[in-house]
Amino acid sequence: MSKNKENKTTKDSEAIGVDTFVICVPLITDIIYFGKEVKAACDKRCEKAWGINQRSKKQLSEDEDDYVYLTDFELDDAPMNPGTYEGADGKPFKPDKHNKWCVRECERCKLLDVGEEIRLKDFTKPIYNIPSAHI
After folding, report:
1. DSSP string, 43-82
2. Is 111 exposed, middle or buried (CB count within 10 Å of its CB: 0-12, 13-18, 19+)?
3. Pick from 15, 24, 67, 111: CA 20 to 30 A from residue 118's CA?
4. Of 83, 94, 33, whose CA–CA distance to 54 is shortest?
């Protein structure tokens, strides 16, 4: 296993710093996730939501985990149907509530404990998968 993989602290890029968080009026939905009451929150930018496995990224080194997601400015709008589903749920057509696709597939959605501060990823800036290697 590479040293970068051993030191990887999080799959999410939330540790990158305050600059990378978006300030918006988020969409918030109360849900039960694996038996626990949580909140799903997102920036309501469904037109830019590709899905965590579909969003384009740029490889930064030979380590397969060392990449940066392309910013919203570098990508066209995402397709209405990116071809991924969670159960019977696909990407929603308008941001009025979250579904299973949002919670499990959307790169813009974050699960929060009740009372946790809402800090969403800001895809107008580079988001590194291994932030500590690029700060």
Report:
1. -S-GGG---TTTS-EEE-SSSTT-EEEPPGGGS-PPPS--
2. middle
3. 67
4. 83
- Boundaries of domain holding 111: 3-7+19-133
- Tally the domains of the chain: 1
Q: Contact, 126 vs 57, CB < 8 A?
A: no
Residue 14 domain flag: no
* Mean predicted confidence (pLDDT) in 102-112: 96
Per-residue pLDDT, averaged over 82-100, amounts to: 91
Question: To the nearest whole number, what is the mean pLDDT of the chain?
Answer: 83
d(CA 107, CA 127): 11
- Nearest in space to 38 (alpha carbons), one of 98, 79, 89, 91: 98
Domain annotation covers residue 12: no
